[in-house]
Amino acid sequence: MSKKMNYIASVISSCVLITACNGDKLDNPTLNKVTRLQAPVHEALTLVKNGKSEAVVIIQAPLGKNDKYQAKIYEINRKAAAELVKYIKAVTGAELTIQTSGTQIEKGKKIILIGESPLTFERGISTKDLPLEGFVVQTFPDGLAIAGRMPGKDENFNLGGGIYNIGESAAQGTLFGVYDFLERFCGIRWYYPGELGTVIPPSEDLIIPACKYSDWPEFAKRSGAHWMAVGMHDDVKSNAAGLKTFSSYFRAGDSSYIEFGCHSPADFGIHIDAAPGCFELSKTGKRDKDFPCYGNPKTIDLMFDDLVQFYENGNQNPYISPRSKRPWCEPTSGRIVVSPPDKPVACNCEYCSKLWRDDLGSNGQATEILAKFTGMFAEKIKAKWQGKKVLFLPYLNYLTCPENMKLPENVVPFICLTYGTANHKEPHVMEYSTRAINDWSKAVGNNKVIIWEYLCWPAENTFLPFQYPHIIKDFYLKNRGKLIGSFVDGHLSQGLKRSSTDMTPGGEWAYSHPTMYCWYRLMWNADYDVDAALDEYCTLMYGPSAPVMKKIMDILTVRWEKIEWKEKIKDHNVKSSQINAETMPEKQAKELEELLDKAEKLAAGNILVQKRIDFFGTALRKFLDESTRFYSNNIPEMLIKKVGENPIIDGKLNDRSWGRSEKYYLKNALEMQKLSEQPAGYVKAVWTDEGITFGFVNYEEFKSVADFKERDDRIYDDESIELFLQCRNDQPYFQVIVNCLGACYDSVGNDKSFNFDKIQVASYMDNKNKYWSCEIFLPFRELGITPVSNFEFSGNIARNRKCYYGNEILKRTYRWNTNYRANHNDTSAFGKMKLVE
Ligand SMILES: [Zn+2]
């Protein structure tokens, strides 16, 4: 930081003379705002004339034989030079040759020096005062140099971890300089991966005015997990491959020297026999080998011993994922991760109970437990290993930072902002996240923090291709002084698609690329002008259809960013009615459809523009279908029959009352069911003036898996059924889960502290006839319903099937109605439920 400040000071003092001729290109508001330096005085440089090369690209030959560092720098410069040559050829048709230093240069040709070297030092060009990943572009009478600040000999070039690794992530300064040059002087733009998303304006000449400027990223960490680009590139089948292929064009990078990490140690469970007290204790007295107890002081000693064994003896066992059998986010020379497995903390032991904080709400109940652990663990680490950072991830029910929290300064909070970045448009969400950043930063002595952002939320609730660049900008401007940077998470579990069965080419890129483009620019510099960028994007990409596409983008941006929902969201989930009735009602959806039709017509005959409209339009049409479904009567309806008396709740559906009711079969929740497949079971429902009874029959020919017996335990991890009831649109839905043992979980919204008072549940297992059945009674009074005929509400039924299949556990999910999304609580799939006589 101090380096950067000194640099800014020196820039200001030397900014006396600025040549005016290149003003346009250096001040282009659609590009990163660079720092202009005093330009040399000489004629403009002609690099290409009439499609013929007038220049050569020079890179320094590796200095020092067998010097690995120099060899690496040479490779990096060669890649940057190759990119420059490739794209200059794409624009002008001229192919510049790449030569190494010391070779003969054709007379009269200009030279382009790539990378810092003795060749740039001779000309007084240096990057030594720039931060990592920064670069300088400087002309001189017979050429120009593009040089990035490289890591030193002893610094790590690569940061990240696992699939989030960006190759040479801290050493991309020269490459970024080349890309800036290509954008600024050749007009190239990379809006999304692949040819369609790349704008290459043809030109016969390439002439560069005398200039000198530099730039560097504001945030050192700018990485993400949304690079797969499904359906766009056959050879890019993983996030890692996508990172390698595309991310540098977006200026993704990482020079934070704090490597990514989460959910580590991956296999602390190896200690369960030796130290059962170091594992989470359930209400029924069972210890969970998959989840450490963070309250027991012995856990700190045990995890610390693991670190000693790792660093001193190379023992990796606690860090090897039992699933992949490979290390997962193990300690590195620079950082150690504190991040529990991916579920809320729920330990009932004496230590954890004392630290439990219900007053901090569902986002903060367990923060004291984790923060105390992290504090003591970090102190021990500091005492033994100076300089190692402890990366602590506040998340789930340990996200809210309690007041006056103090943590040692070797702790770096990596805060998981689980509401989702797009939802920062809601004032209460923006306030929550900003406060979390502020509080955690304060807890570590006002040091900076890293944030984990979610591009996937609430995108997984809808196909609306909403855009929110101003929201991201506002958020970074509010928090810029407190951030090391961000990790942007995507729909990795669904192959980068909004729903696992959505076949829209490009997946999330098709839906969100205007926002994603701006997002990475804003991580480079939060002052980036997103309005100028979106104007230019429409103009460059859509030719004759540009004004119409701009209108579409405006509607998608303004309505998302400006319309505040009537009901406050409780987590990242957004209801179908909030999207389809508030954010983008029928009238606006119709307008979008008309505009899209018009844009397609205007593009007739222009194949490239047609394809680009189609890329985004396919995503938009998914939403138009969703809107039509929402406003049509095609959603399924469950008729709940009135009966004379409530069934007896014993799990058996043999009461006379059940005879009157319809069966509604459940189908595969995630993929289209084949005709030959047997249904998984069915649901029935009846009502009296007192309440509704739901009855379920679940077919199962194997032995069911079920462990939980306590109210509100992780019932959903067992063979179980889930019931969602949205009784009023302006209130959160009720959720009831019952497993085959008859244990029950009930909540409203995501508040599991809510319990129905007069609920009755029972399950019955019939192994001989290969099914289990279940009954749930819910009183109207607690549902807030006045029971009258034809009263309508909405909801869904799901089954989590889990059984032993040979040596394996088989899992399947089924629903009454499904839009094939991963989550059961997808309100867009809720069907109609109606009380009938
Ligand atoms: Zn505990």
Quick take:
The chain is of the alpha/beta class and 837 residues long.
Task: Provide keyphrases for this structure.
alpha/beta; single chain; Immunoglobulin-like; 28% helix; 837 residues; globular; Chitobiase, domain 2; 18 helices; 13-stranded mixed β-sheet; binds zinc ion; seven-stranded mixed β-sheet
What does this structure look like?
The protein is an alpha/beta fold. Among the domains are: 2-220, Chitobiase, domain 2 (2-Layer Sandwich); 637-836, Immunoglobulin-like, CATH 2.60.40.1190. The protein has 18 helices and 34 strands. The strands form 6 sheets. Strands 22, 23, 24, 25, 26, 27, 28, 29, 30, 31, 32, 33 and 34 form a 13-stranded mixed beta sheet that branches. A 7-stranded mixed beta sheet has the order 1-12-7-8-6-4-5. The radius of gyration is 30 Å and the shape is globular. Zinc ion binds next to helix 8.
- Which CATH first-tier class of the domain at 2-220 would you pick? Alpha Beta
Provide mean pLDDT, rounded.
92
> What form results from the Cα inertia axes?
globular
- How many individual helices? 18
Q: For the record, give the distance between the C-alpha atoms at the N and C termini, rounded to a whole number.
A: 72 Å
> Portion of residues in helices?
25-40%
Beta-strand level of the residues, as a percent range?
15-25%
* Counted beta strands: 34
Indicate the CATH architecture of the domain at 2-220: 2-Layer Sandwich
Secondary-structure-based class equals alpha/beta
Rg over C-alpha atoms, rounded to the nearest angstrom = 30 Å
Main sheet specs:
13 strands, mixed
